[in-house]
């Protein structure tokens, strides 16, 4: 499957978050062209501030592979990860990150922080941003617009 096809799957996961009243962010982890874990934002529902889509997915993947090192995997997520999530992604040794919408205010890949290139991290994550960016951004802006009403 292509990056865009995997991102469409992540968008469907983000819609699950939205249906539960969560900020619509979805993520999935792929190894050898197979989805091994998926998740969506759940901090409100789970009373867990760390339950971002990426963290939920990484936890499930670690259990599925019986290893916290997620070597040779690709993480797809609908929004540029925050600092917490980027730290976890690097620590898990995810090989590649693909995200949809950029987050200029809180993004920790290439915006507010550039953790993908941080010299103090002992693992470099390859990344691509802007995959189905308009679709991912629209999902978020529609959600927040509806919340403001």
From TrEMBL:
User: Which residues are Zn(2+)-binding?
Assistant: 52, 82, 85
> What InterPro entries does UniProt report for this protein, alphabetically?
APOBEC/CMP_deaminase_Zn-bd, CMP_dCMP_dom, Cytidine_deaminase-like, tRNA_aden_deaminase
- The active site of this protein is located at 54
Which key words tag this protein in UniProt? Hydrolase, Metal-binding, tRNA processing, Zinc
In terms of Gene3D superfamilies, this protein maps to: Cytidine Deaminase, domain 2
EC number per UniProt? 3.5.4.33
The note describing how and how many cofactors are bound reads: Binds 1 zinc ion per subunit.
| Catalytic activity reported | adenosine(34) in tRNA + H2O + H(+) = inosine(34) in tRNA + NH4(+)
Gene Ontology terms for molecular function: tRNA-specific adenosine-34 deaminase activity; zinc ion binding
Known cofactor(s): Zn(2+)
Ranges where the CMP/dCMP-type deaminase domain occurs? 1-128
Transmembrane stretches, start-end = none
User: What are the recorded Gene Ontology BP terms?
Assistant: tRNA wobble adenosine to inosine editing
Which Pfam families does this one have?
dCMP_cyt_deam_1
Question: PANTHER family in the record, alphabetically?
Answer: CYTOSINE DEAMINASE FAMILY MEMBER, TRNA-SPECIFIC ADENOSINE DEAMINASE
How does the annotation summarize its subunit structure? Homodimer.
Give the protein's function.
Catalyzes the deamination of adenosine to inosine at the wobble position 34 of tRNA(Arg2).
Assigned protein family = Belongs to the cytidine and deoxycytidylate deaminase family. ADAT2 subfamily.
Recorded protein name is tRNA-specific adenosine deaminase
Organism equals: Methylomonas koyamae
Provide the organism lineage as a comma list.
Bacteria, Pseudomonadati, Pseudomonadota, Gammaproteobacteria, Methylococcales
């Amino acid at each position: 499957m292509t990056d865009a096809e995997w991102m469409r799957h992540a968008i469907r996961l983000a819609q699950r978050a939205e249906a539960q009243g969560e900020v619509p962010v979805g993520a999935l982890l792929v190894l050898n062209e197979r989805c091994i874990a998926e998740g969506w934002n759940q901090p409100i529902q789970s009373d867990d501030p760390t339950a971002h889509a990426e963290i939920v997915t990484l936890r499930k993947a670690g259990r599925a592979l019986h290893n916290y090192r997620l070597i040779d995997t690709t993480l797809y997520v609908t929004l540029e990860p925050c600092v917490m999530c980027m730290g976890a992604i690097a620590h898990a040794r995810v090989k590649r990150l693909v995200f949809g919408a950029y987050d200029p205010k809180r993004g920790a890949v290439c915006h507010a922080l550039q953790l993908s290139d941080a010299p103090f991290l002992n693992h470099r994550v390859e990344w691509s941003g802007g995959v189905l960016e308009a679709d991912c951004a629209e999902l978020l802006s529609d959600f927040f617009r509806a919340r403001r009403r």
